[in-house]
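From the thread on structure requests for the teaching lab: each student submitted one protein with a one-line request. Submission from student K.M.:

"Model WD repeat-containing protein 48 homolog from Hanusia phi, tokens only."
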Amino acid sequence: MLGTTLNRKKHRRVSYVIRASDEGRHRSGINSIALSRRGDLLFSAGRDATTRCWNTANPKAVCERTYDGHTDWVNDVVVMSDEATLVTASSDTTIKFWNIANETCTATLKEHGDYVRALAYAKNAQFLASAGLDRDVYIWDTVALQKPVAQMPDSQFRRCEGHKDSVYCIATNNDGKLVVSGSTERVSTHAIGLIRLWDPRTGERTGRLKGHTDNIRCILLSEDGTKCISGSSDATIKIWDIGQQRCIQSIAIHTDSVWSIALDPQNLNLFSGGRDCNIFCTDLRTLDSTLLHKSSDPVTKLLLSPARSLWVSTVSADLQFLDVDPPLARERASRSTRSKPSVHSITTVGPRRSIGSSGVGQDVPDENLVPLLPTPTYVIKGLPAIIKHDFLENRRCVLTEDTAGDVALWDVTKAQKIQEFGKVDFQQTRKSLEKELLVPAWCSVDCKLGSLTVNLDFPQVFSAELYANDAGFPHTPELEETKMNVGFRILRSLLKRWLQGRRGRPQDRSSALRMQEEDGASHPEIDESLDYTISDKIKVIVSEDSGTKPLICRRVFEWDGSEPVDILPEWLVQSLERDGPHNDKGERVGDSPKVGFYLTAHPDCDIRQMQQGKLNAPQILRGKKVLHYALTKLQLETQVPAKLRRSEVRDAIDYLELVCNERVVPLDMNLMTIRKFIAKNPDELILQYRWKENMDKGDHNMVKGFA
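Reply posted by the TA:
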């Protein structure tokens, strides 16, 4: 079982992803696309960790299904020959098989040790090839879905055998008699980038192709297995003869890295795109290259439809459709009648450009080329990705800015957006929301997926013990003295269904009772009203190695208690079952640290002096509590000066104020905030109490809004 094979000592993290409730489109760039046989379903692999299915027969190209189980970028996608199974490869190091109709994951392959970058499918041979940054190439039996039937040798085992560096692309043909893969490995002192040839039946190397001077980024294999086409970061496209194992043609039309190529074998048209945003079509018979379209973003994938139109994905969240066949045919038909060169095309015969030390061509093609299609035929719009974020001082709210320039505020304890500011200056908005408040950083966030991901790591997750009305709950008298641990309450809210399901099982119920006995007493019933309300659709992830290797990924409503305890962090299990923050040994943690301070009478005030020396109190203790201590200790209720007394003021503490560094302290400000923002010397916190000088000036002590 999975739990018996995992190393329990590795660091494990709990994360959850916050997405808008109306998302039905990609939130970030799209790395790859695939089509069904008829071309009516388009599958897109996104950097938002989702794969989406689009009905292209619908003029609006609506998203019909979403395959959401990866925890990092989805880098490639393949449709199996049965048209019922989808395969995805991800930077979370896994390959997943999906039932297309019901959106469920049917198998997860975890053999790769690093990002899985590319897939290739041989439908007649029924195998799938995968490649990644771990330098490995695998051949998978798509029927058995067991261990790989062949693993390409690694240089650690046999010298000069197998890729020595990351593999970015892989290809095969339908018969599957040959696999080709492109890597970043060095081939000479001044050049990197190597293509290796493999026999998928044995995993043996059958050759290698050298000629590029930079990383191999995309690759194709002809159906008869005699030709190979590759695109590279050296900005060139090369055509190779497999039998001779040499380059027979080099095409230099791009000004930057070539990321994708697509071939129309019937018309011998080669489509190419990449970082320079240009999409070219090269006639392989004449080597005339036509600038089809200039995208607004670098091109990640080109895909030819059965009708010979072109689907385009880019580093943005949009999908573009180019109806290239009619205009391309007109352009080529008119060449023979022109007396002047076309404004859309150039002729490439052999290498046209020199490659500098950076790997980018220095002699660029004609910059005056006019795109044949100035705009896409239509676009499936995506959503803007979050690219900037900053926590507010309350450590609950996060200010974000997306690629459209819109600024918004999110509450991570509610896992939702709470305010939109529109297109405003991010830094100015952040400054306007600034508060004098200090809350320990109980979580971290990132926006790698285009949305906010909240990461919970031990012991940091239990570092924020607060009063409930400072943690997002209403400012009511009954909550004013109620303490809670924010991170623990978030974990309870995310995994409440897991805990309920586990406690409903007899063997797990007895385990919980045993834990209570070990603690010395039965736990009082926990106040569930202090759990946060989080949508059941939020995705919860448990991973190893700071999030790089997922162990389990489920939505809140999918957790049911049947999940193996061994895949969860031990500190998480102990905390949930013992109803409070605990470490992996079952020891209580998370209590608020103490702050040392001196409490004295203000020198300019005629008031009793505190005789006690240095005091210690929890860092979340509020200024009002400090004054209460002085009031009670010195019995100041009867000492209020007559000139200050007011009939409407019934509480003696309202005649007092707390001072630090000659500044009146708001009474709902806690000790750690006072030490950071008001005290001159945070190592020696000195607080002074005094009578208010003038009651008519209003009550300085009732300042609110610090939560």
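TA comment: The radius of gyration is 32 Å. Residues 110 and 456 are 24 Å apart (CA to CA).
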